[in-house]
Amino acid sequence: MKTHTLTVNGKAQQVEAADDMPLLWVLRDLLDLKGTKYGCGQAQCGSCTVLLGDTAVRSCTLTVSQVGERSVTTIEGLSENGDHPLQKAWIAHVVPQCGYCQTGQIMNAAALLRRTPSPSEADIEQAMAGNLCRCGTYNRIKEAIQSAAQ
Amino acid sequence: MMPTFPFSKNKPDQQHTSTIFAPSRRDFIKISSLAGGGLLLGVSFQCTGKGKTSTFSPNVYLSISTDNLVTIIAHRSEMGQGIRTSLPMIVADEMGADWARVQIVQAEGDEEKYGNQNTDGSFSVRMFYEPMRKAGATARHMLIRAAAQKWGVEESSCTAEKSMVVHAETGKSLTFGELAAEAQELELPDQESLQLKDSGSYKLVGKDVPIVDLEDMVTGKAVFGADVRLDGMKVAVIQRTPVVGATMASYDDKAALAIPGVEKVVPIKGSGNPPGLNKPLEGLAVIAGNTWAAIKGREALEITWDLGENASYDSRSQMESMLKSTLAEGRVRRNRGEFKTAKSTASRVLDRSFQAPFYAHATIEPPAALASYKDGKMEIWAPTQHPQWARDSVAEACAMEAADVRVNVTLLGGGFGRKSKPDYVVEAALLAKETGMPIRVQWTREDDLHHDFFHAHSAQRIVATLDAQKKLSGWNHHTVFPSIGATSNPEELHPSDGELGLGCIDFPFEVPHIRIETHESTAHTRIGWLRSVSNIHHAFAICAMMDEIAEARGVDPVEQALELLADDAKLDFAGEIEGDFGNYGESLEDYPWETKRLKNVIRRVAKEADWGKTLPEGHAMGFAVHKSFLTYVACIAEIARDESGTITIPEVHYAVDCGIGVNTDRIRSQFEGGAIFGTSIANTSAITLKAGKVEQHNFDGYHLARMPQSPKKIYVHLIDSSRKPTGVGEPPVPPLAPALANAYYKLTGKRIYQLPFSMA
Ligand code: FES
Ligand code: FES
User: Fold this and answer.
1) Domain A2-76 homologous superfamily, CATH
2) Any idea which architecture B6-217 has in CATH?
3) Are the C-beta atoms of residues B310 and B430 closer than 8 Å to each other?
4) For B7-42, what is each residue's pLDDT tens digit?
5) For A51, phi and psi rounded to 5 degrees?
6) Which CATH number applies to A85-149?
7) Which ligand is nearest to the CA of A56?
8) Ligand 2: distance of its center to the CA of B705 in Å?
């Protein structure tokens, strides 16, 4: 057990955790940030996606000791009032079904738009291919990203 | 309590009626912790069987508070189908409530209070549409009466809209809240004379209404199974038996207990063989202060298993023997005419075999449940489709009274039938009772894929005969797969009547000689129901075969389907079916099998997709039609191959007759999602077992359709209907795989006889 200092959603936080504890469990179990979801633990599904700086990462395979100085943004910190353009677009297109995968989808899309502000359909498909949705909301996700990008 | 299968909701000889009543305020406060004055109504749902009447049990409560807020208790589980929105919409619309002033509260699992809450089998709207309307209409009548009395005017001159009663002539108006206390004092209106709105005047029903949980879902605030926290809560991760029915011979937990954070290791006694549908598997639980420590602790366990009889099970060799079994005569389940004669006089015989694998539900939220045991009472928080079955199973496993077990339903991160089985809830309860600590059981993805209640793998053989005029003269369908029933009763060797009722026995086409047979197989893993159940493999084989028959006859498959549905008829299969034709638990009088409605969706989909048009080079279309859960569905899929040889799915069209559409947006979203679920079934997913163990461990072995592989445009064409609403959660799935398989044949010349098939 070791003390790690992390910057999460703009706030410096100290946690006691084993070096190899994935960021996902640090967020969910130690910092009570439960919007980040577990789906596979193997970087296969994308439900645990958060931003590290401006890049989307799978928090289930990134250990707490690998985070270092970089700032972590979770769904709770994406916007102050749930009004990030992607969140608004998600609502306008009524994207979620069960909703479970959606926070990971939104975080992944946020990284895409930071990198590529006007993505083509092919860009979106390529960027979002790592995020599974068993309820099958892909087409609305695509539409929501397109309208948020405009 | 027996499990309720999705396809046998109630016996066809049973009748449902509903009653509105005025509950005591004390009862209401007990269930909802909502106090205060105002109007309070309950809807009870009565089930009358042959010659007996069950007692009334209130299903749903609705209240109007003096501060003008309408509260509706949602008694069904939300798992992405939008039911927490759709049912309250019906009530609110009948009432004339302002949707912005309606709040929805999730009910706990309690059959006495809410009646059957099993959310399965695409039947929530179907069953509760009328009672919800009546509840809303009752409230509206009482509010109007209260206003009319106050103003001394005729009730018929008042209207209720936007949570206000208005008297147009004088321009007077009062809010529901202002009238609630007076309305509460009035007699309930007579149910028989209750005036329901006609569907034309609905403001919500039949429209697109955003789901109520939307904002929480996009901000991370939505509470799923693993998101509830209690003081002192621990996390358990369980090493379960690798082979169903195996027992633990010995274990060593020293290394596990040495991991920082691990507090305890507790064995769970499993059900053995047969595994049953509501019992935990044998296992060893590692209990820790956080999830990661529990996962690492489990990795460190050393367990010796007595693997038992299923250790020699190999799903591939069972598939071989199931296929072989279809070559012999089986048990005849439906017979019309004399198939053997048709065969001996046939001008051509087509004899084809079809295979489909085991499928896992793979909800992105794996099973999880939290249990807390204090002072002889158990409280549970779980993402469950069937809270009452969970409660009763916990009570049985923990030797408690059901009344001492309370099940709170969280949102479900996908259900698809998996989360009606309460095994994971029972695990949490057993551990909480044993340790005295609040315990959250967390399944990993590996646990989920290894220990699911799988959709059964299946072998089918269809022999079709053409007569001298090239007409389809005979249809002989053999089907064999381990039955769901075998999970609790190994004597069940044949598919049940219920399972055959899922898209096999009700083969609707006008063919003079029909013979449907089943064969024996055994279950060596847990078999359960998955979104649309046996319709998955039955629709695949039937619709793929019909396409091949059309080709052999030199006719268009869409034309052939219309031709073989012949004249408008209500099918009853009278005298042909051995055993019960379930009709999804409904009588054929209430929900007749109408060929007209099927022809209607076929024509509509052909028109919308422009079937027969000249397609660009490298494109092809496939057609399939399949009725399930009382909903009529026709589907056309278009596929395309690019220069690199990659095949994609540019378009899928569905035409759907599901009666009255309540929330049209959620109907469309169910079909969009169903098409993608169907794409996984068709192209990517399969579970296999070797030496009794599942061979897929995570999403790198059990593949789901991802965005690039999924249909790019999914069009849902709803038939405008005033018929009773029917299911929409499951019906999109069955026709998708055969529509794709038929398109694939047109593009490549290769017929598909086995799922999944890769289009890459
Ligand atoms: S949980 Fe991290 S990618 Fe699936
Ligand atoms: S909305 Fe259910 S998994 Fe994506």
Assistant:
1) Beta-grasp domain (3.10.20.30)
2) 2-Layer Sandwich (3.30)
3) no
4) 444 433 344 556 666 665 555 444 444 445 677 777
5) -100, 135
6) 1.10.150.120
7) 1
8) 13
